[in-house]
């Protein structure tokens, strides 16, 4: 019911947003024109050492004042400005997109192996949980989320509103929403981002309640009622805080059936059993295709029953993952290979160091 | 009976025989162990006062000639002075004693399970058809690691270094609950053991030791250690697949148990390891647990004795500060906690405890799951819900509220023929279940009864997969704690908050 | 020839310590000496066989729990509940012990030279040939023999005044034998005093001699002393409390 698209250049060669806009809009039939979004890595080279916070402000006075004060408590604002936008007919802006380039104070997370990310995580949770008219929609280094909701939010309109063709990134995810609830909220469409990780999802899990309660027991605070929020936090927990490799994290989210595990060689059985034991509450059921990314990789995977489509394309240094092949060919007519991976086989592309 | 002003109570049941239908075959006389029927000449006489509504006579009457009416005599109706309170007063005015009663609570309070509605998928997510695609009910009971540790090998592969502690694997989230040999018959135990093996689950021994005839099924047994330590020695512990420490019982929280000497037959005496005919008194507390820090000592004593090879469960009654109790037990080293709601069954319990002490299992499980998550302890223990699990939707709801599995008690007895007449304490169960009288025990054929129990478990397992599939959930751990898939129907706001469930329509 | 194994328990957690003891027995040791014991719990827990384990130091809680056969000799004190749910074998403690000594013990012997704490012999029970015996050289505290369902509990009071009150609370089997007189006020509901007959004296004398022998005491004054015997007033102490619905 949604369309998703991801593209990554293994050698960090930049792509501007126009091709991504083109690709996503070929899948307009998958959406309802009430939400779309883009996320790109590599777009802020001048502030590469700062956490770029994209914030939706109800208004640039009171709400911004609260965000400014919160950020100053947790670190230093190097620079901030309104995100450039260009009004689109039919797209009604109900908030002001703002961006901060922020340096967290690592001393505020003593004892942490990743203090800056802990600080950023905490302040995102704090701002988003509060009734303060501000929602942080992305918070990583050299990365930014551009999205909107409500009538008129077709992929082209959202792209043009943010002028994403003006941004250059080496890894892009995009999402076209078929709204089912709160269509008017700008923070609701994917992508969802928490510092390194961004997530787009096509589908809807049946396990949101279990997954959310699990992830909240580790201090995350889910505020948007979306799967991708929970998925982003679950990946952050497993990969950053628990040190799992991404393929194991994906396996925890979409584990093999017990019958399959029973057939595996002993060591693999033990590993898979342990994963289901430890992360049973993170496992997701129901239909979904997820593409997640961080600055170094892009990973796509589906639910274990393969209820949602996922097409993978490769062409020279580019890896594409999309709901439909047409989206890939719209951006890369000469794509070299097209595959449709089996459920439980994550597609992982890594960016050269 | 002592002379007193009270006379006899109105009949509880009236038994009648349709004389046109009756052919005086005498099967009712043979079958009724309570002595309701008596043959005199060619007429069968009836003493309704002895009737317990066990239905044995009705079941075996070839002509359907017997009919039973409950409460054939009205009291003046009164909303406050109910029949039950009046009759309790008459009883105690006559005897001056504590009233004991059989089976679970009869308090007329709403059942929360009945006011929780399950979810189904429609268009935003598809239902799963369990006939075509797997819906996994396999459940592992025991500790789960909170996170995993790996060692990176030279070829960059990772190797798991976390050691998993023993878990009990069940193919369906249903366990057969602890009812002791002594409280129920050996044939009932054998039937349960066979059904457990057939279905791929386990049964509880209750506090009564393990009869040698059950040794062939010991790999399907959860052996119980209760405060009386009856039948408990190291060999008993080693026989079980898991060990349960009984700390409380939902039907009578805060008090112990008491098997009267009459029920301590030769065989019961052997398995309990006490003299024949002696009272078996289980104290209220374990006398080696007077403080919470003593619980880990008992847990570890049992684990040391069995060389850490078996999961150890603890069972507690659901009481007001359930969440705190559960969190305390979760820290003690146990692998699973069974929580017994106030509607839990019993052979005998003081009426005032049965009907007035404790809280419902629905609330207890929800608050336990929430508290364990809050304290980061949820992976430390599995949660088993027990105390009035009556049908498969109860199981789905209990799991959605946070349980890993359930124990069945009364439902299993009913599958063997029990009519829930509540007269277990008389020891005359005409179905051969709650009795030690050999002629009555012989009425329960373990082959037949085990099939009935297995049928019930099989049917419920099918229903659970259908309910889960309809909700688009394909593995039981994804149902666990998934309160978003429940809605409360006419439950008050406070209760919904405790359950962490939204009202219907929300 | 006896095979002796010595284990140093200094700083060793009880699980590896008990594994070492278990392994020594499996390897055929007749005697295991455990030195520097300081509170390690569950020594002898669940062990079978007839070996002797010598514990030098303070034995931790639940010494000899579920034990079935071996002999444990403690040169020092023992904490909470030595002999807990013990099946058979023997525990000899040269010092004193904590509360709930011989809790739910169903066979074998526990001898304590010094004092024991509250609830000594609680819910001891017997069955056929299995009859647990607890003998205390010193004094016992309150609720002695509570819930007692079988076996023999002897308190010698060799070191002064007996402190126990509420003796035999809920006793419904077995016997409590106390040297000297016991004030009626010290008996709990359900317990009653009866004279110690010559037959009783003959029956318990071997136990007393064994106790004296284990601790190097002169048996005669102990065997010939004046004793009070306490037994259940009824085998069904709670029978009159209940009626049926």
From TrEMBL, chain A:
Keywords assigned by UniProt, alphabetized: Glutamine amidotransferase, Transferase
Stored Pfam families: GATase_6
A GO MF label: transferase activity
InterPro entries: GATase_2_dom, Ntn_hydrolases_N
Domain (Glutamine amidotransferase type-2) ranges: 2-353
Name of the protein in its database record: Glutamine amidotransferase type-2 domain-containing protein
From TrEMBL, chain B:
Residue ranges of domain 4Fe-4S ferredoxin-type in the record: 13-42, 43-71
Name of the protein in its database record: Archaeal glutamate synthase [NADPH]
Binding of [4Fe-4S] cluster 1, residues: 22, 25, 28, 61
Keyword presence, Glycoprotein: no
GO biological process, one term: glutamate biosynthetic process
InterPro entries, alphabetized: 4Fe4S_Fe-S-bd (IPR017896), 4Fe4S_Fe_S_CS (IPR017900), Aldolase_TIM (IPR013785), GltB (IPR024188), GltB_archl_type (IPR043578), Glu_synthdom (IPR002932)
Cross-referenced PROSITE patterns: 4FE4S_FER_1 (PS00198), 4FE4S_FER_2 (PS51379)
Gene3D superfamilies: 3.30.70.20, Aldolase class I
Lineage: Archaea, Methanobacteriati, Methanobacteriota, Stenosarchaea group, Methanomicrobia
Residues reported in the UniProt entry to bind [4Fe-4S] cluster 2: 32, 51, 54, 57
Species of provenance: Methanoculleus formosensis
From TrEMBL, chain C:
Source domain of life: Archaea
GO molecular function: oxidoreductase activity
Gene3D superfamilies: Glutamate synthase, alpha subunit, C-terminal domain (2.160.20.60)
Pfam families given in the database record: GXGXG
Domain named Glutamate synthase alpha subunit C-terminal: residues: 17-184
PANTHER family the record matches: GLUTAMATE SYNTHASE ALPHA SUBUNIT C-TERMINAL DOMAIN-CONTAINING PROTEIN (PTHR39673:SF8), TUNGSTEN FORMYLMETHANOFURAN DEHYDROGENASE, SUBUNIT C (FWDC) (PTHR39673)
Name assigned to this protein: Glutamate synthase alpha subunit C-terminal domain-containing protein
Organism: Methanoculleus formosensis
